[in-house]
Write a structure and sequence with these properties.
Elements lengths: L1 E4 L2 E6 L2 H11 L8 E5 L6 H11 L14 E6 L2 E7 L6 H7 L1 H4 L4 E6 L2 H5 L9 E7 L5 E7 L2 H11 L1
Helix pairs in contact: 1-2
Length: about 160
């Protein structure tokens, strides 16, 4: 089931395979400079979505959660994709020392899990073009909510749902 309201799209994903397929469906629409915030509780499917997205871009290696490394770097389909997980981020020095700000540029695609953790550390991120939220339901499905926050995000979601 798909529902659309202004700048908001909702879809029900039946299972893990549907989450992977959704990521693969979005992959060919990605453009350099895109920032996507991934939101949802632990185990909601954020890394599963990222795995589907990377598979859709042609990446065949292992896709793992960046929880401990804070960032996983992928060079695929002539794109640089950075998958961040700021769940454990609490020290602004860690952000600055790692040079994370440099990763967020017009040549890269950034998937950012737990973006709200940067606020707690007194840091700021670029505006997300798209905020993607995953919520498990009582029936073991996932509700995915996509919200466009910029004209680039709006164009992406329009292509995805038209």
């Amino acid at each position: 089931m798909q529902i659309q309201t202004e700048n908001n799209y909702y879809e029900t994903l039946a299972d893990e395979d549907a989450t992977l397929a959704f990521g693969a469906r979005l992959a060919p629409l990605l453009t350099p400079g895109l920032v996507i915030f991934l939101q949802g509780d632990l185990g909601a499917g954020k890394t599963t979505f990222a795995r589907g997205l990377l598979r859709g871009l042609g990446f065949i290696g292992r896709v793992k959660s960046p929880t401990y490394a804070l960032v996983e770097v992928y060079a695929v389909s002539s794109l640089n994709l950075y998958h961040f997980d700021f769940y454990r981020l609490s020290d602004p020095d860690e952000w600055h020392e790692a040079g994370f700000r440099d990763y967020m540029n017009t040549e890269a695609i950034c998937l950012i899990e737990w973006p709200e953790k940067t606020l707690g550390a007194g840091l700021s991120l670029p505006t997300a073009d798209v905020t993607l939220s995953l919520t498990p339901t009582a029936t073991d499905t996932r509700l995915i909510h996509l919200k466009s926050n910029t004209p680039t995000g709006n164009a992406l979601l329009t292509k995805l749902y038209v």
